[in-house]
Structure formats: C-alpha cells, structure tokens
Design a protein that fits this description.
Layout lengths: L11 H5 L7 E5 L3 H8 L4 E4 L3 H4 L11 H12 L6 E5 L9 H15 L3 E3 L7 H9 L4 E6 L5 H4 L11 H14 L3 E5 L3 H10 L4 E4 L7 E4 L1 H4 L17 H17 L17 H4 L1
Parallel strand pairs: 1-2, 1-8, 2-3, 3-4, 4-5, 5-6, 6-7, 7-8
C-alpha cells in the first residue's frame, strides 16, 4: 500500500491532484531491498541519477548512462507496489531533440515499468516536455540547482538569489505550462520556493527549498547516513546507518581473527569426526 493508504499504485494524475493538499513524501531508491523499505511510506520513489555518485562512486551524475538507469529502474520496480516510480533521464539522453528524448524515455518506461520520467531544466526543455506529454509520457520537471549542469554553474551552488530569482520562476512556470505533472525545486532560497509553490499550478517537490512546497524529497542514502562522501547542508540525518554498519563490520572482523566466529551455533554438527565418518 502507498503512503496514502490506497490499494493501487499511485499515478501521475494522482500526484498532480495533490497540489495544495497533504504533503507528498518522496525518496530515491536504486535497489530492490531499499524499494521495499520505502514503498509503504512514500508517495513517489525516484530512481535518481544520483545513483552514479551514491552507488558507483562517480564524482558527479554526468557519467550515468541510460543502461544504468534501466538496470536500477528494473531493480526498484520489483520492490514497489503502491508508490509512483519515476526514473531520471540521464545527461545526454534528452537534450539533443524532442525526438531523441521520446525515443529514450519510451525505452526507459518500456524496460523498467516506470510511470514517468524526470527531466532537468526549465525553459530550455519546455518544448521537449510538451512533446513527450503529448505522446503519453508523463514528465516531472526539475529546476533550480540541476546537478547535470554542475559544470555550467561552477559547482553545487544555491540558485535563484537576487535577480536570478526571475530565471528560476520562469523555468518553473515554463515546465508547468509545458505539461509536467510536478516539479522538483532544488537548492533555492526559501522565499522563492514559497512563491513558486503559490504561483504554479502543479505540485512542487522541495529539496533544500521550503516546507511550503507540496512535497519533499531526499536521497535515501543521505537521510539514512549511508553516504559519507559529503553531506549537503539541506540534508537531515534520520539515522547513522553508515557508522552502525562500520561498527558491525569491525566486530565481525575481530571475531574472525580471534576465531570466535563461527561458533557452534553457526556450523553443522558439534562433534569432531574423521573424514570416513563424515562421508
């Protein structure tokens, strides 16, 4: 069951209808076990291209391929029953033309069973969003700090300060008018996120934005304390599973070296035998 208590999987129209209502709960997932954990609590599960950094040790999302997204999308799909699954379109898979975007998005949806895809960018991808939605592919937008444009931004810097706020507002408006059913607002000033949420007609999903957004999303490994390469300032740690896992692995290593593991409870038979008796 989804976080809404429904008996069927949520759909893009269900998410769009939540504008101004109960906040949408969203998390990323990249594997079947994690998908099973988050499914009962989330409305939206995003197979994010953050998988490149979180699971594959990449320095950014730019090296993530379509094949990687399909592989992880398939894994997450096996663990979901109620939440809406969205798959990120990776860098280079949709920017060339709306036709390229449709071909790759259709492949992702066919291969993974995703209900929608997510594209980064505002006014520059509005035509592509319009092209996809007109052909039956639901799209979630993503404006503000768009990680695939990290080189153009000069790093993972907050976007939309001062006069730049107008650009972010135009981007969010363009995405909504092009037919996206929701839009992620990443790392922008709180007041700007609040204003965009008030002005656009589709749900806004905040990450480093505002509690006034129609929903919130975090990278699951960040909020669980599993990803330690760096910690974005907008992340709240709800657990420290990374340090707990480190302690558990250290205990295992110690017991192996001291021959305390395996104990009799972890092997078969408690009496020494000769080879002939065993056979």
């Amino acid at each position: 069951m989804s976080a809404t208590g429904g008996s069927r999987a949520l759909t893009p129209p269900d998410i769009a209808a939540r504008k101004g209502k109960a906040p949408l709960v969203c998390l990323t997932a990249y594997t079947t076990p994690v998908a099973k954990l988050v499914d009962g609590h989330c409305d939206v599960v995003l197979v994010g291209d953050s998988v490149g950094m979180v699971l594959h040790g990449m320095p950014s999302t730019l090296g993530v391929t379509l094949e990687m997204m399909i592989l992880h999308g398939k894994a997450v799909r096996r663990g979901l029953h109620g939440a809406l699954m969205i798959v990120d379109m990776p860098f280079g898979s949709y920017e060339e033309s709306p036709t390229q975007a449709f071909r790759n998005a259709a492949l992702v949806m066919a291969e993974t069973g995703a209900a929608a895809v997510k594209l980064e960018g505002g006014e520059c991808v509005a035509e592509t969003i319009r092209f996809l939605t007109a052909r039956g592919i639901p799209v979630m937008g993503h404006v503000g700090l768009t990680p695939q444009a990290v080189n153009a931004f000069g790093g993972y810097r907050i976007q939309g300060r001062g006069e730049d706020a107008e650009r972010i507002l135009r981007d969010a408006t363009a995405v909504a008018e092009a037919g996206a059913f929701a839009v992620v607002l990443e790392k922008i000033p709180e007041a700007l996120a609040r204003l965009i949420t008030e002005q656009v007609t589709i749900p806004t999903i905040g990450i480093g934005a505002s509690s006034a957004c129609d929903g919130q999303i975090l990278v699951v490994d960040d909020m669980l304390g599993l990803f330690g390469a760096f910690r974005p300032s907008f992340v709240k740690r709800y657990a420290e599973l990374g340090s707990a896992a480190d302690a558990a692995i250290a205990a295992y290593a110690s017991e192996v070296r001291e021959r305390r593991f395996p104990a009799l409870d972890h092997v078969f038979g408690d009496e020494p035998r000769t080879v002939s008796e065993v056979i």
